[in-house]
């Protein structure tokens, strides 16, 4: 079984990944602090529930940004003895926390809006200032989304991309707030509270989506079918690989863990099998965003044929042959065993040239025929001549 791994981190290096992610997150923090203060203060003064709800959304973004900074700092660390696969799952756990926070925020805001909609005295006209702050928020969140998404895709960070789409959901909610406040100002006063309820529902939905995806990763859900098919094609195209089964994948942060059983010619040497595994591993690491690849070399498709684990080990088989063949048994290094199809094929290597070897070979052939006919372990025993 060949197991190979590379250090966790993006292609540009863990250091650069961390610093660029930190930079974009700090920009997000600064924007959200400014918008949160404006939305909540002006929303309360201007009596806009929708703007206050959007402000609470921005406040949750601040907490999310700090969690992202924490996860990015610790998740970019290299692998160590206690964490041989690296620390990328910190990002996954953080994404799960982000989702739960958003779900809680959305549920609380939705409950508040629903309660106020049932109270006619809570439905009142808002101040025009709230509309301008809502428009400013919309422009700020959309610009932040485009900037964060660009950096996230450059770094291939699922967590940063999740945070970028979070900013886009904020922009969408801000658009609803603009419409709700505008409708309130034009006489449909309930639109402000309806906008607040809709924003709350959007927050909850986004939280559910992020939490669900993170949970699927934490329970080792496979990569999507297209990615698995691409990895399968890469392995099958490797010289020396005759088949593939038990391909398993899972995600860790923005990269993948891959386990595969590949079928090779059962008669090749151990070193050649190792070479095939090395080549297969290198091709997957080069062509796909893989953190670790484990390739198990199979001489036969053990998912379809009888396994050989019930058979005796080499020492016991040699002992049995020695008892039957006596002095005609060659040294152990001249016996090659193949565990195939639930039985054993043996190759006995005999030096050629001396005349007396012909008699030895004839006697061996006679005894070998008896062994194969009577023994339930050996499927075939073949004599092969080698240069002395």
TrEMBL record:
Domain (Cation efflux protein transmembrane) ranges: 26-218
Entries under InterPro entries matching the protein: Cation_efflux, Cation_efflux_CTD, Cation_efflux_CTD_sf, Cation_efflux_TM, Cation_efflux_TMD_sf, CDF_Transporter
A Pfam family of this chain: ZT_dimer
Membrane topology: Multi-pass membrane protein
Entry-linked Gene3D superfamilies: Cation efflux protein transmembrane domain, Cation efflux protein, cytoplasmic domain
Transmembrane segment boundaries: 24-45, 92-114, 126-149, 193-208
A GO cellular component annotation in the UniProt record: membrane
Cation efflux protein cytoplasmic domain residues: 223-300
Keyword Lyase in record: no
Keywords assigned by UniProt, alphabetized: Membrane, Transmembrane, Transmembrane helix, Transport
Protein family membership: Belongs to the cation diffusion facilitator (CDF) transporter (TC 2.A.4) family.
PANTHER family reported in the protein's UniProt record: MITOCHONDRIAL METAL TRANSPORTER 1-RELATED
UniProt name for this protein: Cation diffusion facilitator transporter
Organism (species): Sulfurimicrobium lacus
